[in-house]
Design brief:
Helix content is 80%, strand content 0%. The longest helix is centred in the middle third of the chain and has 43 residues, at 57-99. The chain has one domain. The protein has 202 residues and is mainly α. It is globular.
C-alpha cells in the first residue's frame, strides 16, 4: 500500500515535470510550428497516459496524418518522404522493445506519430534521450515501489534461462510479472524537450 502510494506520487511528479518541460518549449519556440505542434501533442498524451495508462489511437492517428500533411504541404514531395521516413523510424526504433513486452503498442505509435512531424534524424535523437530518461525513471519507480529486489532477481533469472536455452523468449515480459508500468509518454516528452534544449547526442 505504501509503495503504491509512493508510486502514484512519483507518477504525478514526473508527469508534471514532463508537461512543464513541453510548455517551456512551447512558450520559447512559439514561432516554430513544428516545436509548437510537437509540444502540444506531447503535453496531451503525457496527461492522458498518466490518467488512463494508455495512449489512444484517436490521438496518435489524427496527429500522424496531420503531421504528414503538414510536411507535404510545406515541403512537397521531399516533405512527404521525410514524414514517411520519420514514421517508419519511430515504429522501427520501439517495435523490438514492444515485441519483447517492454512497452505498449500506444507508446510505439506515439513515437511514430512524432516521427511523422520531426523526421527520421530528429526522432533518432529523441529516441536516444528518451531511452536514457526512461531507464532512470523506470529504476526510480522500482525503488519507490519496493520492488528493486524483484527486478534484480527477475533480470538474473532471465539471463540464466537465455544462457541455457539460447532463446529470447525468457526476456518477454509476462502480463503482470513486474507490476510496474509508468506512462512512457513522459519519457518521450522529456526526450523531445532535452533534444530541443540541448541538441543531439550524436
Amino acid at each position: 500500500m505504501r509503495g503504491r502510494r509512493a508510486f502514484k506520487i512519483l507518477n504525478l511528479i514526473f508527469t508534471a515535470m514532463a508537461v512543464v518541460s513541453c510548455l517551456l518549449i512551447l512558450s520559447t519556440n512559439s514561432a516554430n510550428h513544428v516545436f509548437l505542434f510537437a509540444s502540444t501533442y506531447l503535453t496531451i498524451i503525457s496527461l492522458i497516459d498518466a490518467k488512463l495508462s494508455k495512449i489512444p489511437n484517436i490521438i496518435t492517428f489524427p496527429f500522424c496524418i496531420l503531421a504528414i500533411l503538414y510536411n507535404t504541404i510545406f515541403s512537397g514531395w521531399e516533405g512527404l518522404g521525410l514524414a514517411l521516413a520519420g514514421t517508419a523510424s519511430g515504429l522501427g526504433l520501439l517495435l523490438p522493445i514492444f515485441l519483447l513486452g517492454g512497452m505498449g503498442a500506444g507508446d510505439v505509435k506515439a513515437l511514430a506519430a512524432l516521427g511523422a512531424l520531426m523526421g527520421p534524424k530528429d526522432i533518432l535523437q529523441i529516441f536516444l534521450y528518451m531511452g536514457i530518461v526512461g531507464g532512470v525513471i523506470g529504476l526510480m519507480y522500482f525503488v519507490v515501489s519496493g520492488r528493486m529486489t524483484f527486478l534484480l532477481s527477475y533480470i538474473s533469472q532471465r539471463f540464466k534461462e537465455y544462457y541455457f536455452f539460447k532463446d529470447i523468449q525468457p526476456f518477454k515480459a509476462g502480463k503482470g510479472e513486474s507490476g510496474i508500468r509508468f506512462p512512457y509518454a513522459i519519457a518521450i516528452a522529456f526526450g523531445f524537450s532535452i533534444y530541443v534544449l540541448r541538441g543531439g547526442i550524436i
